[in-house]
Design a protein that fits this description.
alpha+beta, Jelly Rolls, 8-stranded antiparallel β-sheet, two-stranded antiparallel ribbon, 2 helices, 14 strands, 41% strand, globular, disordered N terminus
């Protein structure tokens, strides 16, 4: 009886794991954004491809001077070039992605990586070509104003930055 219970539990856990996996271009990636929901589809005017944003803290009461959001990038999705007057912090929570400052090489990001972006640094961030990427973002000193958007990261720029 115990062996049947163990086998059944193993089968249930394995099934749940496999259901949480998806296939993209022959590569299996795991949909691991289990902490927060996907949120709302982000506007195409400042992102390339499909991105979802879940605002976790908007600081409408102006107590913390920080906004916090969970962002899900589908494979090859990315932000446009932009900067934050008060800076930004990224906490990679799932998948593989990239961060690049204007004029510098891109940095590959994996779960657990942290990027502290100083104020006014023009940059982009997003998913690797064949992997979903999830990060928690924090915009700091939001009283200094919203992000300034500087146009799309071209496919040529993206392909060069993500080539391995």
């Amino acid at each position: 009886m115990l062996n049947k219970t163990v086998a059944r539990n193993f089968l249930v856990i394995t099934t749940i794991f496999l259901i949480s996996c998806t296939t993209h271009k022959g590569e299996t990636t795991m949909d691991t954004n289990l902490i927060f929901g996907k949120g709302n589809k982000a506007p195409g005017a400042i992102f390339t491809n499909t991105v979802w944003v879940n605002m976790l803290h908007t600081d409408e009461e102006k107590v913390f001077d920080t906004q916090v959001y969970d962002v899900v990038f589908e494979p090859a999705a990315r932000t446009y070039w932009h900067s934050h007057p008060g800076g930004q912090i990224l906490l990679a929570t799932s998948g593989s992605g990239y961060y690049q400052e204007k004029g510098k090489p891109a940095r590959k990001l994996e779960k657990g990586d942290v990027v502290a972006i100083p104020p006014e640094v023009v940059h982009w961030h997003g998913a690797a070509p064949q992997s979903e990427f999830v990060h928690i973002g924090m915009s700091t000193k939001v009283h200094e104003g919203p992000a300034a958007w500087a146009g799309p990261v071209t496919d040529e720029q993206y392909n060069e930055a993500t080539a391995e």
